[in-house]
Write a structure and sequence with these properties.
The protein has a single domain, classed as Zinc/RING finger domain, C3HC4 (zinc finger) (Herpes Virus-1, 2-Layer Sandwich). With 99 residues, the chain is mainly alpha-helical. 37% of the residues lie in helices and 6% in strands.
Amino acid sequence: MQRVQFDQCFFDEAYLRVEEFIKTGVLPELLGKWFTVPRLSSANFAPEGCYCGNPIDEADILSCTSGQCKRKKFHKSCLKLSRVPKSWKCVECKKQTKK
């Protein structure tokens, strides 16, 4: 058995990464089955708006900064962001960037 000492710096960094993962991976799935729902072909289906499918309220909008985003607008309340970033890309656009 070996005792591992608490490291505040490691904890703070890991916490930020977990928080980002929850915002970009877990919340979209919980709110709108973003990863598990079957997708229609892009010719038949053009998604508009937030993952939740509710109408866009102009007071509660965050826009994806990717020029190729299909959804473009999202509810800040659905994303659970405490602050609004200057440049923000949705989960799908982040995936396309990594490929």
